[in-house]
Amino acid sequence: MDVISSTIHTHTSNFLKSDTPITTTRTHYKHTHHLQVCATRVTPTTTTHQVLDEIPLSDTFAWNRLIQNHLSNKQPQHTLSVYHQMLLRGVLPDNHTLPRVLAASRLWGDFVFGKQVHGQAFKLGFGSDQYVVTALIDLYGRLDSIDSAKWIFFKSSGRNSVSWTMLAKLYLMQNKPKLAVDFFHQMVELGAELDNVALATAIGACGVLGSIQEGRKVHGIARKRGLEFDVLVSNSLLRMYIDCGSIEDANEIFYLMPSKDVISWTEMIGVSVKNGAFNDGLKLLRLMNRDGIKPDALSFSSVLPACARIAAHKLGKEIHGYLLRNGTDFNIMVQNAIMDMYVKSGFIEYASNIFATMKERDVISWTVMILGYSIHGQGELGVNLFREMEKDSRIGIDQFTYAAVLHACSTARMVEKGWFYFNRIRVPKVTHCALMVSLLARAGLFDEARIFIEERRLEKHPEVLRALLDGCRIHRQVKIGKRVIDQLSELEPLNADNYVILSNWYADSAKWDMVEELRETILDMGLKPKKAYSWVELRNKVHVFGTGDVSHPRSEGIYWELKSLMKKMESKRHRRNPDFSLHDVDEERECIQIGHSEMLALSFGLISTQAKVTIRVTKNLRMCQSCHDFAKFIAKTVEREVIIKDPNCYHHFKNGFCSCGDFW
Q1: Are 351 and 372 in contact (CB under 8 A)?
Q2: How would residue 127 be classed by pLDDT, with cut points 50, 70 and 90?
Q3: I need a surface site. Which of 69, 240, 317, 455 has the fewest CB within 10 A?
Q4: CA 602, 608, 613 angle in degrees (round to 5)?
């Protein structure tokens, strides 16, 4: 600390050496010429001078209020200018003036000026004032070093909870949460006063550290001090337990809180939605309203992903309507969340309308829309949108945006564009490489895809091999597909999906002994192939169907409708493609086509809604080729749009065509 002591002493020596009292003349400030230069960077206007001249010289409060106004308006340069004028008029600063001027120095980034104000504080006898000390700690910690800030702290007799907390925050700002926690415990051992801000800061540090053990220690201290259910402390505990992965502890704190604010509710809504408990998140939003707490922009941004599903699109629309009716702040975060909700609930046209009316867009806005167009089968629109975005120099294109445009290139099979954008990525990640392989494979360029994989040594990455396998499935490259399946089985011996695809490949080749052998292997290894399910929402109720399901109360009508449509299809000599050679669902190969889950959900939608109403179905696994062909025929025959979402994309069936162009 001797070096630091010497340095800080030098910084303040100009003021500490002189016995001359502070005067109002410029002569006194010759040795602090930088103070004048810095403080007068923005020359006060005539009007400003008139305002300053009207302030009584003895009214320090009025000067402080003017300084505070500039500081609150984020005008540190004006703050310093007013301070200079204050000194010239002979008005002595007090312990309220100096912290504000030090804060302005920090915000303006002028450490030299801040050091000179530090010296002046000592000269005026405010060196140990708690407000001044805290401001000095903040100044030195941010513009010099935390060691300098600690020296000031320990040399001062004006230490309090605020200055302790300020040092802990500085550690957090330097990404040193362990030191912040240790410093807090030192504070406790020395018997320092603890307030809610100090506890919240320490709890936050535990969350950043990801240490639930340390978090529980600080929680215990908060309980002993009677501050556990202070709203700020409780909210910090919620965030800490969530960050540490202990949702159970977070729930316990939340339901024990005697009073909750919008932050408390939003934290729990957000974690519920992130963990897939969508209904819980929506329920919490309703309870929050009932409790008299008005949701803010962040609350809605947290809950909207729960509506980003076809089955919840009505709730999403209701929330959008609520926002419009109640004049909630439609900031860019909320608009992005609404747009994402519409993209994922199947309403790409609504998302496009919101995007078109946005006055401001950030990189997330563009990325959501580019990817949105792509997963709805409009890859070329996604690429065009990316080109439009490039014209805005303010938008910083990140890895996620490049992934979105590569996805769009893959959807549209725009190989040259794909190569162009891929080569612009400085350090491509595996995700970018997988998208490039997907593009090449979907375009039927299997030799190029193979060379790309070999040159970049991507053979050990399952997502890359699956991208290649998708191309094999589309172009019926069964032999290449078999090699890829074998590679996947070696890489992921415990992934049942690989054995299912292999079994379907053997079944297509009529190698039934191998099919049976693989079934036994799956059973012996205790693996569980995924079951196919589809669901459709009707009158606020979700109806779920499995393969060959006959449990629904309206099963008879569902199957009758499908049989009737199948007969029409056969009478018009429409050919179906029953190819299951590279299909990744086990049970569907052996089930009649009208028993496939998406067909049951679609049929239920047809018999339960009025003519012309769009049917929206979600399936947890990929559609088979046969069902895809049947859905195109049904949409044309009944003259309705049918939207079926599977893990790969949104299939918009209309007039006998699908938006995916039969590439999925």
Answers
A1: yes
A2: confident
A3: 455
A4: 75
Name the pTM for this structure: 0.80
Q: What is the rounded CA–CA span in Å between residue 313 and residue 575? A: 34
Q: Give the start-end residues of each E strand in 308-397.
A: none
The yes-or-no verdict on residue 57 having pLDDT over 90 is: no
Would you state the structure tokens that stand for residue 257, as one six-digit string? Answer: 């809180």
Give CA 154 to chain center in angstroms: 40
Query: For residue range 220-234, what is the model confidence (pLDDT) as tens digits?
Result: 999 999 999 999 999
Q: Tell me how far CA of residue 102 lies from CA of 121, 173, 565, 580, in angstroms.
A: 10, 19, 79, 73
Q: Using CA atoms, how far apart are residues 216 and 359, in angstroms rounded to an integer?
A: 45
Is the separation of the CB atoms in 322 and 287 below 8 Å? no
Identity of the amino acid at 609: T
Find, among 317, 249, 302, the residue nearest to 272 by Cα.
Answer: 302
Beta-strand relationship, 541-546 and 615-619: unpaired
Dihedral (Cα; 312, 314, 315, 318), 10-degree rounding: 160
- Average pLDDT, whole number, for the chain? 88
- Beta-ladder partners of 652: 643
* Side chain identity, residue 286: R
Q: What is the mean pLDDT of residues 331-339?
A: 94
- Can you tell me whether residue 651 is helix, strand or coil? strand
Determine the Cα–Cα distance for residues 289 and 299; give it in Å rounded to an integer: 11
d(CA 239, CA 536): 35
Residues, the chain, total?
664
Q: How far is CA 234 from CA 62, 99, 111, 283, 286, in A?
A: 38, 30, 37, 21, 21
Rg of the chain in Å (alpha carbons): 33
Cα separation, 514 vs 502, whole angstroms: 9
Could you report the per-residue pLDDT of 273-295, keeping only the tens digit for each? 999 899 899 999 999 999 999 99
Check whether 359 has a pLDDT greater than 90. yes
> In whole angstroms, what is the distance from residue 432 CA to residue 197 CA?
44
Burial of 608 (0-12, 13-18, 19+ CB in 10 A): middle
Q: Give the separation between CA 373 and CA 375, rounded to whole angstroms.
A: 6
Q: How many CA atoms lie within 13 A of 397 on its CB side?
A: 20
On whether the CB atoms of residues 373 and 348 are closer than 8 A, the answer is yes
C-alpha–C-alpha distance, residues 601 and 537, integer Å: 9
State the angle between helix axes of 97-108 and 60-72 in degrees (0 to 180), rounded to the nearest 10: 30
Q: How far is 604 from 593, CA to CA, in rounded Å?
A: 15
* DSSP percent split of the chain into helix, strand, coil, nearest 5: 65, 5, 30
Model confidence over 306-331: pLDDT tens digits?
Answer: 898 888 888 899 999 988 888 777 89
- 439 pLDDT more than 90: yes
Alpha-carbon separation of residue 461 from 336, 427, 430 (angstroms): 32, 17, 8
Residue 79 token pair: 């703050």
Share of the chain above pLDDT 70, in %: 90
Residue keyed to tokens 């400030």: 29
Q: What is the dihedral of CA 447, 448, 450, 453, to 10 degrees?
A: 180
**CA atoms in the 13 A half-sphere facing the CB of 316:** 28
Burial class for 27, CB neighbours closer than 10 Å (0-12, 13-18, 19+):
exposed
DSSP labels, 529-562: PPPPEEEEEETTEEEEEETT---STTHHHHHHHH
Yes or no: say if 62 and 56 are a contact pair by the CB < 8 Å rule. Answer: yes
